[in-house]
Write a structure and sequence with these properties.
Strand content: 15-25%
Shape: globular
Number of helices: 6
Order of helices and strands: HEEHHEHEHEHE
Helix content: 25-40%
Number of strands: 6
Distance between the termini: 44 Å
Strand order of the largest sheet: 3-4-6-5
Largest sheet: 4 strands, antiparallel
Radius of gyration: 18 Å
Length: 185
């Protein structure tokens, strides 16, 4: 699916909210249409634009208001050292999202969960404005941790590539939710 096709599809969707010629996607449309983008156009993304999505993402649920996430913008030299097999699909912006470990294993798990929610919020905010994302786990090794200069006080939750999609994959089938629901007495 091309991005222009996505916008046409969105404008024709009954889940749209808007006035006149301007419409925005409903949250369900954003969630269900979002795709992992692996090939990006070279068009730049302004820092102010993605900073707005980073800010919006900070409304993610986080127990005790720890706000454990931090962002590491990855420049060209660091990106080259990471040596991603597709160079992050040619995305114009790449950054790592790290999470404070906390005082104990429970806090660490809560922080990772909160940071994952933060990343999802970011991805949905970007997608709602036609910008695709790719969440990579490339930075899980000690070598990549050193390249990113991340101390042992943090977990690397992901490296995100963002940009305008060159290609948008088709939706992959999902398991029916009813098969995943269990009712307890």
């Amino acid at each position: 699916m091309e991005l222009s096709g996505l916008h046409h599809e969105v404008h024709m969707n009954k889940g749209m909210i808007g006035k006149g010629d301007f419409c925005i996607m409903s949250i369900l449309d954003v969630i269900q249409s979002r795709r992992t983008v692996k090939k990006f156009k070279a068009d730049s993304i302004e820092r102010g634009q993605y900073t707005k999505w980073l800010e919006a993402a900070s409304y993610a649920p986080n127990h005790r208001m720890t706000e454990p996430w931090e962002i590491l913008i990855i420049g060209p030299q660091t990106r080259e050292k990471l040596n991603h097999k597709t160079n992050f699909g040619g995305a114009p912006v790449v950054f790592a999202v790290i999470s404070k470990k906390g005082d104990n294993e429970i806090v660490r798990e809560e922080n990772i969960a909160a940071t994952s929610c933060y990343i999802q919020n970011f991805m949905l905010a970007a997608w709602s404005e036609g910008v695709g994302t790719f969440w990579s786990s490339i930075a899980t090794s000690q070598i990549k941790r050193e390249i990113l200069q991340v101390s042992s006080d943090y977990d690397i939750v992901g490296v995100l590539a963002i940009g305008y999609p060159e290609e948008i994959p088709e939706v992959k089938p999902r398991t029916a939710i009813e098969s995943k629901i269990k009712e307890l007495n």
